[in-house]
């Protein structure tokens, strides 16, 4: 018992000497094994990632859900659908008055859709310039009338003076004639003087008579000049008053105001919508500012896609649905096909359609839906328009091929905005409704998530 205690005590107090070399070698082998396992794990992960990436590259559509449809064969009625709005037809165009070609400022303007009666004021322009011209014309007229009165008074005075001088010359002539009668009893030299005095008096009387006629003609011409100035001032006064009256634009018939876009001095960028005219805007003479459509003659302004232009023609019958009156069916006829406009990715044209059967509850600006049946093709092979793709001169669809899709060229026979008649495809053929490659890219972007800001 005591021996065991001693041994235990000895072990507890005295450390045992280690065996040289053995523990260090074990730890080294363990580290090498851990490094080897990690390297093998990294290699397996890299190989797995490479295989997944290669699989995604070779067959991207295998894991992407691409919507599909089938080629159908049936009697196909091609339709063109568009939306538009009601407005009155036979519009009366209201323009800025021609008042010398200068710029004018709007001081009053009706709002679009506001009902007006015949003779109601639709727009007014600032009359300050024309009122100034009116006052100038009034002043010129008064001044020229005064000049006419002065010319007439001067003419009367000159005529009276010339007549007095003529009468005096006639009296002197008679006296000279009496003196000449006394020549036989007078000395020769005195008689000669009387003859000379008589001749001088005759010449003076004749000259004064001619002067009287000439002065009358001169005074008449001067008065005519002043009267012409009065007539000119009178015309200027009437023109200024007419211009002032024209600055107030009135409706010629019942209807509603439709304010036009402000194109005075603006630069039109592609796809840009110009604002309507409003009070305070500057307007050039002759510019259209508004129109008054005739409510007894309805028409529809509808925008059609550029691809549908070839399917429409003037006089074509259309079906019309007014959103505010869903229970009533309306019909109309294509009246006019406007010019194509809009950006390259959204080309369209505005068409005017006359309404055949108007109704009392119709109002300007109501939204409508237009359906035009353009043609009926018996037993046609057709697809939705979004299933057909174009690149340059090539038209193709995507058909299944193994785990993915491949492009296949097709012949395009007819096309509308929503349907396409094709050849070179069999009835029931499955085709993609979207580009599989684009769908794959969308999925990859979604898997990676949004890019973090740098």
Overview of this protein structure:
It is a single chain. The protein has 454 residues and is of the alpha+beta class. Among the domains are: 67-76 and 378-443, conserved putative lor/sdh protein from methanococcus maripaludis s2 fold, CATH 2.40.420; 128-246. It is built from 5 helices and 20 strands. The chain has helices at residues 2-13, 22-58, 128-181, 188-246, 436-448; strands at 68-70, 72-95, 103-109, 115-116, 121-125, 248-250, 255-256, 258-259, 282-284, 288-305, 317-322, 330-341, 348-355, 367-384, 389-391, 394-401, 404-409, 411-415, 419-423, 430-432. A 6-stranded antiparallel β-barrel has the order 2-10-13-12-11-14. The longest helix has 59 residues, at 188-246. It is elongated.
Distance between the termini: 78 Å
- Radius of gyration in whole Å, from Cα? 53 Å
Overall 3D geometry?
elongated
Global structural class = alpha+beta
Helix content: 25-40%
Element-by-element helix/strand order? HHEEEEEHHEEEEEEEEEEEEEEEH
Unreliable segments of 5+ consecutive residues: 1-21, 54-62
Give the DSSP E fraction (strand runs of 2 or more residues). Answer: 25-35%
Number of strands: 20
Largest beta sheet: strand ordering: 2-10-13-12-11-14
Number of H- or I-type helical stretches: 5
Overall average pLDDT:
79
Q: Quick one: biggest sheet?
A: 6 strands, antiparallel, barrel
């Amino acid at each position: 018992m005591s021996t065991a205690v001693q041994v235990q005590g000895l072990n507890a107090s005295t450390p045992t000497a280690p065996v040289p070399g053995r523990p260090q070698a074990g730890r080294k082998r363990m580290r090498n094994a851990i490094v080897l396992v990690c390297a093998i794990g990294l290699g397996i992960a890299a190989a797995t990632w490479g295989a997944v990436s290669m699989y995604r590259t070779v067959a991207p559509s295998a894991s992407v859900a691409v919507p599909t449809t089938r080629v159908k064969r049936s009697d196909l009625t091609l339709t063109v659908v568009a939306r538009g709005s009601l407005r009155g037809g036979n519009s009366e165009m209201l323009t800025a008055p021609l008042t010398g070609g200068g710029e004018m400022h709007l001081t009053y303007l009706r709002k679009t859709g506001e009902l007006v009666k015949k003779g109601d004021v639709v727009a007014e322009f600032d009359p300050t310039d024309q009122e100034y011209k009116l006052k100038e014309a009034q002043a010129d007229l008064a001044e020229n009338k005064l000049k006419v009165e002065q010319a007439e008074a001067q003419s009367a005075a000159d005529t009276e003076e010339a007549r007095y001088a003529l009468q005096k010359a006639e009296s002197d002539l008679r006296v000279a004639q009496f003196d000449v009668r006394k020549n036989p009893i007078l000395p020769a030299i005195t008689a000669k003087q009387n003859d000379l005095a008589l001749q001088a008096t005759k010449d003076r009387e004749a000259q004064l008579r001619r002067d009287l006629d000439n002065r009358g003609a001169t005074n008449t011409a001067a008065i005519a000049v002043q009267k012409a100035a009065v007539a000119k001032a009178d015309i200027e006064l009437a023109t200024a008053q007419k211009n002032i009256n024209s600055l107030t634009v009135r409706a010629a018939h019942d209807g509603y105001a439709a304010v036009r876009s402000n194109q005075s001095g603006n630069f039109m960028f592609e796809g840009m919508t110009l604002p309507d005219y409003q009070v305070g805007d500057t307007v050039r003479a002759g510019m259209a500012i508004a129109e008054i459509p005739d409510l007894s003659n309805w028409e529809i302004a509808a925008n059609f896609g550029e691809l549908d232009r070839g399917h429409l023609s003037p006089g074509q019958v259309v079906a019309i649905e007014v959103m505010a009156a869903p229970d009533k069916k309306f019909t109309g006829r294509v009246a006019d096909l406007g010019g194509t406009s809009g950006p390259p990715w959204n080309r369209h044209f505005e068409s005017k359609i006359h309404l055949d059967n108007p109704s009392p509850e119709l109002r300007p600006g109501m939204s409508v839906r237009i359906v035009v049946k353009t043609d009926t093709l018996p037993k046609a092979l057709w697809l939705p328009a979004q299933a057909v793709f174009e690149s340059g001169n090539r038209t193709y669809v995507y058909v299944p091929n193994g785990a993915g899709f491949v492009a296949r060229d097709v012949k395009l026979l007819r096309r509308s905005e929503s349907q396409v008649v094709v050849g070179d495809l069999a009835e029931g053929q499955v085709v993609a409704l979207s580009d599989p490659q684009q769908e794959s890219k969308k999925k990859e972007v979604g898997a990676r998530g949004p890019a973090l800001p740098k």
